[in-house]
Amino acid sequence: MAEVNGFWMKAWPVFRTPERTCRPLIPGITRSVISTRSRPPATIARPWPWRAPNSKERSDLCADLGEERYNPVIRPADFLTVAQTAAAPNTFFPLVSGTTFNYRAVTPEGTETIEFTVTRDTRKILGVTTMVVHDIVKLNGSVIEDTLDWFAQDRSGNVWCFGENVADYEDAAEVIAVNQRVTVPAWTYAGCLNTEDFTPIDPESSELKFYAPGIGNVRTINPDTGKRTELISIRKK
Questions:
Q1: Are 125 and 19 contacting, i.e. CB atoms less than 8 angstroms apart?
Q2: pLDDT per residue over 56-74, tens digit each?
Q3: pTM for this predicted structure
Q4: Three-class secondary structure of residue 222 per DSSP
């Protein structure tokens, strides 16, 4: 497990049972899960420039993750209230109710837009009051994905994801650069953190993500297709 500027990177499997799913997502992005099928986090050492891992690299990653269940102890007292989180949010993943982040990407199929809203709704999971995030993806104006995620920030500043409505998958990520300057339609951001997300289930796939201090994710790049999803605006209400 590695830490860069308080940003922890781990591997995690995700399942459809949110009450049994819990992964710390940032400060870093600490990612984990509670499940009989889950595995312990591991630091993934990867070369840069990146090349798609072959079957041996995939096997090595699985060996790094190990066979034992990763089962962190969740203490509700360790987590902040919604008001406390808003007062001191994680710099790379700020959870402030009423904030909507709008992203846009141009794809061969048309224009894709993403609306990521930190709602004012909450849900109690494993005794922790989590904040509900509504994520809507549209292609040419038609909804193609509608997801609810449950996040909470602990007293150390880590953001945990306690569940999401997605199919089973397994993922890993690595911090590859810090102090990056990124220009997107919304603004030019300095001091950005750059990560690479990849998955041993589909070794050919990876994403480069850029997180701006005080904002969160501002750009995602698919290295294979060149598709860029960029922040175009932030709305607070």
A1: yes
A2: 656 666 666 666 766 778 9
A3: 0.70
A4: coil
